[in-house]
User: Fold this.
Amino acid sequence: MAVQEARQCGSDSAEDGPCPHCERSGHRRAVAAFLARRDELATGHGVPPALAHSPVASRQWVSDELAQSARTVAARDREAAAARSVRIHRGTLAAVWGAVLALLLGQALTALALGTGWTGTRTAALGAAVLLAAALTAAARLHRDRGGVLALLLGEDNRLSTSRAVAAAWLLLSLYALLLLALRLVTGATQVDLGLGGGAGLLVVLALVGWTVVAARLIVALRVAGRRLQKVRADRPRPADLLCDDDGRACLTDTQYVLVSGAVLVLTAVRLGRAPDRLPDLPWALVLLVAVSVACYLLGKCAEGGRPKIFSVVRAREAGDLDAPIRTGDDIEIRGTGFVPPGAGAPDPLTRLVVRIGPVHAHVPLVPVPGGFANPTDTTLTVPLPADVEPGRVEVSVVTAAGVETNRVAIDVLD
Assistant:
């Protein structure tokens, strides 16, 4: 199919691989087809007439149709991932060298406006930017299959890491300052101050944000291993990952860490521009502010998430149905929390939700409604009791898309 799409787009040879535009278009078409199919089935249309008389059979058929369509969307997304990586790789390189060009234009305009002419400091600043951009270009080439420069900022869950992004920004500024001082010495400057007295605050902040990367990774790894945090791999990184949690909701601890670090970083860059002959002199009050922001960020990492838990299991009752005990073939409603981990609300992860009922593993059916799904949800699951479940006392547990199993609750099944 990829070869056919490449030919349709005018590729000269199938050896060139699939066309990136076709891959993106194929993914968009798959998403549109899934949404249309979900909304059609939500209104009761499209179900085979032979199954319409059986609510259980029609619900299972609808769930299987949606699951297959969701897998198609996921497959299309994986095919488009390579094209996205190429675009991101090129875009980041364009941004890096665009920043160098902007610096050159800014220096030229300020030199003309102030009438100071081109100085050795301007040459050193431009040279440091070119060297740093060249280093980033080389690093991007090594990781071009994962998005170039942004690959250094990706976490294990394929999301942009807030701690890594902040640490990378401070590291780039520190390297730029060192290259600037080195080039100032090369150009013959005599007033370059290489003492650490003025740059001690910068070094402390750099150590803080670097330690934060290690600590955040350790906290997340330990909480995932202890099943106190559920992590689902994202389909793609997004800029919003820096300020939001895995579910795309704004996160206060992440946002304050980015804003505080960004504001202090800008002030440090301004101080470097005003005094390019020494490391930026960062006041200790601002260093303390960054330390407080780091502490809040790490405490937020310790508090996020939680283990999924079942509170109760009851017989699902429809309107007009009589109250009765749970019997084979009935629907059971599982009430609790954490059944849909953050980032697992997409259709494909929802299809991996499983209920363990004694020795039987029952997949939770997808029940569509216009614009979403009525089942499963984060707090309730409805699943039919399989016929293979023997009457008697059985234990029920839920296995989420993250692979975490809940506690077990015993129920009595009557014949």
Observations:
- Residues 1-8, 10-17 have pLDDT under 50 and may be disordered.
- The two ends are 51 Å apart (CA to CA).
